[in-house]
Amino acid sequence: MTSSSDRDLLLSLARDAIEAHVESCAAPSPPLDGVFARRGGAFVTLHLRGELRGCIGHVDAHDALGQVIARCAVAACSDDPRFPAVTPAELPHLDIELSLLGPLESVAAIEEIEIGRHGLVVEMHWRRGLLLPQVATEWKWDRETFLAQTCVKAGLPRDAWKNGASLWRFEAEVFGDR
Prior knowledge:
With 178 residues, the chain is of the alpha+beta class.
């Protein structure tokens, strides 16, 4: 579990990276010690007045969390293909949510997936989709709907999880600045 002070540091890093990018300023360089040095995957989710405004992440735990958070924050505000880039006028109204990912665990039986606790990754051939644990809860999905929607996110048929797709589950520590 990440301490409250470390959560604040990570959220500040994300906000600083977004503001620097949107305002065309020099990006902050995160220190490479403490929580910033911890290796991990993470997602940065942006909301504007309660509505999704961007979400980009990095699954693999090869890079330092400080680098991952800064890079994903910039990508969430500028590279999510579902949304235009965040504007300076939107900055004061953005809510930032971070999801620090735990390790991927192979799923042998769908009963191993717990709604609200696990996120999912579905992969088949060159297609891969991921949904965070909070998505199923927010949409009030059952396990099979969660699996089907993760397949859709990967660009696969809804039932690919029954027909040879690889499945992984993961836990995430989710927190936000508001």
